[in-house]
Amino acid sequence: MKTISHWIVVGTLFLAAQSPAFAALRTVELSVSNMYCSVCPITVKKALQNVPGVKKVEVSYAKKEARVTFDDAQASVAKLEDATFEAGYPAKLKPAKK
Hints:
single chain, alpha+beta, 4-stranded antiparallel β-sheet
Protein backbone atom coordinates (compact mmCIF):
# COMPACT_ATOMS: atom_id res chain seq x y z
CA MET A 1 0.00 0.00 0.00
CA LYS A 2 2.93 2.34 0.68
CA THR A 3 4.10 1.93 -2.91
CA ILE A 4 0.77 3.05 -4.35
CA SER A 5 0.64 6.04 -2.00
CA HIS A 6 4.20 6.93 -2.93
CA TRP A 7 3.39 6.91 -6.67
CA ILE A 8 0.27 8.97 -6.13
CA VAL A 9 2.32 11.63 -4.33
CA VAL A 10 5.03 11.56 -7.00
CA GLY A 11 2.45 11.82 -9.78
CA THR A 12 0.68 14.70 -8.08
CA LEU A 13 3.94 16.61 -7.60
CA PHE A 14 4.90 16.01 -11.21
CA LEU A 15 1.58 17.33 -12.49
CA ALA A 16 1.76 20.33 -10.17
CA ALA A 17 5.22 21.19 -11.48
CA GLN A 18 3.89 21.10 -15.04
CA SER A 19 0.99 23.36 -14.15
CA PRO A 20 0.81 26.88 -15.58
CA ALA A 21 0.49 28.09 -11.99
CA PHE A 22 4.29 28.11 -11.85
CA ALA A 23 4.56 30.26 -14.96
CA ALA A 24 4.62 34.00 -14.76
CA LEU A 25 3.61 36.57 -17.31
CA ARG A 26 6.43 38.94 -18.06
CA THR A 27 6.37 42.14 -20.09
CA VAL A 28 9.49 43.51 -21.77
CA GLU A 29 10.35 46.29 -24.17
CA LEU A 30 12.58 45.60 -27.13
CA SER A 31 14.44 48.17 -29.19
CA VAL A 32 13.87 47.12 -32.83
CA SER A 33 16.26 47.97 -35.67
CA ASN A 34 15.60 48.23 -39.41
CA MET A 35 12.02 49.53 -39.21
CA TYR A 36 11.98 52.07 -42.04
CA CYS A 37 8.35 52.08 -43.17
CA SER A 38 4.88 51.86 -41.67
CA VAL A 39 4.50 48.22 -42.80
CA CYS A 40 7.57 47.02 -40.87
CA PRO A 41 5.79 46.89 -37.47
CA ILE A 42 3.26 44.44 -38.92
CA THR A 43 6.05 42.02 -39.82
CA VAL A 44 7.68 42.44 -36.40
CA LYS A 45 4.37 41.88 -34.64
CA LYS A 46 3.64 38.70 -36.62
CA ALA A 47 7.13 37.34 -35.93
CA LEU A 48 6.72 37.91 -32.20
CA GLN A 49 3.19 36.49 -32.11
CA ASN A 50 4.52 33.26 -33.62
CA VAL A 51 6.76 32.63 -30.59
CA PRO A 52 5.05 30.06 -28.35
CA GLY A 53 3.99 31.64 -25.06
CA VAL A 54 3.59 35.20 -26.37
CA LYS A 55 0.30 36.64 -25.13
CA LYS A 56 0.35 40.26 -26.33
CA VAL A 57 2.45 42.35 -28.74
CA GLU A 58 2.43 46.09 -29.35
CA VAL A 59 4.87 47.56 -31.89
CA SER A 60 5.58 51.28 -32.30
CA TYR A 61 7.07 52.44 -35.59
CA ALA A 62 7.60 55.93 -34.19
CA LYS A 63 9.57 54.68 -31.16
CA LYS A 64 11.18 51.73 -33.00
CA GLU A 65 10.21 49.42 -30.15
CA ALA A 66 8.04 46.45 -29.28
CA ARG A 67 6.32 45.73 -25.99
CA VAL A 68 5.77 42.00 -25.49
CA THR A 69 3.92 40.10 -22.77
CA PHE A 70 4.77 36.42 -22.60
CA ASP A 71 4.64 33.33 -20.42
CA ASP A 72 8.19 32.96 -19.13
CA ALA A 73 7.79 29.19 -18.85
CA GLN A 74 7.38 28.97 -22.64
CA ALA A 75 9.22 31.96 -24.08
CA SER A 76 12.31 34.01 -23.28
CA VAL A 77 13.85 37.29 -24.31
CA ALA A 78 16.36 35.33 -26.41
CA LYS A 79 13.52 33.64 -28.32
CA LEU A 80 11.87 37.01 -28.92
CA GLU A 81 15.14 38.49 -30.16
CA ASP A 82 15.71 35.46 -32.41
CA ALA A 83 12.22 35.81 -33.91
CA THR A 84 12.72 39.46 -34.83
CA PHE A 85 16.21 38.79 -36.15
CA GLU A 86 14.94 36.00 -38.40
CA ALA A 87 12.29 38.41 -39.73
CA GLY A 88 15.01 40.94 -40.60
CA TYR A 89 14.53 43.24 -37.63
CA PRO A 90 17.21 42.71 -34.96
CA ALA A 91 15.95 43.59 -31.49
CA LYS A 92 17.57 44.00 -28.10
CA LEU A 93 16.06 44.17 -24.64
CA LYS A 94 15.68 47.75 -23.45
CA PRO A 95 16.93 48.43 -19.93
CA ALA A 96 14.21 48.49 -17.29
CA LYS A 97 12.90 51.95 -16.46
CA LYS A 98 13.86 53.21 -13.03
